[in-house]
Each structure stands twice: as C-alpha cells, then as structure tokens.
Design a protein that fits this description.
By secondary structure, this protein is of the alpha+beta class. Helix content is 24%, strand content 34%.
C-alpha cells in the first residue's frame, strides 16, 4: 500500500502524452515514467530557481544514484496528458525527490517512485558531502516566498 512520504514542498507538472511514449497497446511504456520523473524534476528545480544553468555556474552535477518506480494503473495515449506531483523529501547531502503520476484530470494514482542524487564537482568528479549553498538558498527562498515551513 502506498503512503505519501513527508516532504518539504511539492510541485505539479503536466505533460502531453505522445504516441512515441506508448507501447503497441497504446499504454505509456513503463520505461518512460523515468523520463517523466526527469522532466518533473527539471520543472521543480526551475520553479525554485535552481536550474541547469545555476548548476553549471556552481560547476556541479547531480547524477542519479538510485531510482525506483512502482506501477498501479495504466495511462493511455488517449488520456492525452499526465500529471506528475514532485515532492522534495531531502536535499541536505543528497537530493531525494518522490513522484506520483496520474492521468491529467484524475486522482487515480497510476505510478509512484523516487530518485536520489548526489552533488559532484563537474571538473574533478569529486563527491560533495554538503549540498551546494546556492541550492540551499534557492530552497529557502522558495519556501519563504510560498509560506512553507
């Protein structure tokens, strides 16, 4: 049974389902859920003000070190759009985000999962044991602006 994790804050993203996202039965192919996780994570990071350009300025990359996805229901190409709820559950030392996927306009959970990432120096590929200060500042600013805490 699924239980929504405790999270700092959440965002929602809606994506168009294209024919190439589906299998021969017109159902979103299981491997594409990871793609939708990635797109939703990018949306969240842009929304809080710490996108890929900011990472480049910090000379940091965030490789995925762990990923999981569980499937509960299917989404078809005829659903036209899907909605991903992205929850930031941890960002100190490592970044962990959890995801819930729904057909847009429905509250029926279709898939859920998480990704874990670590910060690394882009030039030396050394692991950072602390979250970059600019990411911490972006999270704190976002929470302050949205009355979160």
């Amino acid at each position: 049974m699924y239980r929504r994790p405790k999270y700092r804050f959440k965002t929602e993203s809606v994506f168009k389902i294209s024919f190439h996202d589906t299998d021969a039965m017109g159902v979103v192919w299981h491997g594409n859920y990871i793609k939708f996780f990635e797109l939703a994570r990018e949306d969240m990071l842009n929304e809080i003000g710490y996108g890929y350009e900011d990472m480049q300025k910090d000379n940091v990359v965030f490789p995925i070190v762990e990923c999981d996805c569980k499937f509960r229901n299917y989404i078809r190409v005829t659903d036209k759009r899907l909605r991903v709820v992205t929850m930031l559950t941890e960002f100190e030392g490592k970044v962990e985000m959890h995801y819930e996927v729904y057909a847009d306009g429905s509250d029926k959970l279709c898939a859920y999962g998480y990704t874990k990432q670590v910060a690394m120096n882009v030039k030396t590929m050394e692991l950072y044991f602390e979250t970059p200060k600019s990411l911490l500042a972006a999270v704190n600013k976002f929470e302050s602006e949205h009355g979160i805490k």
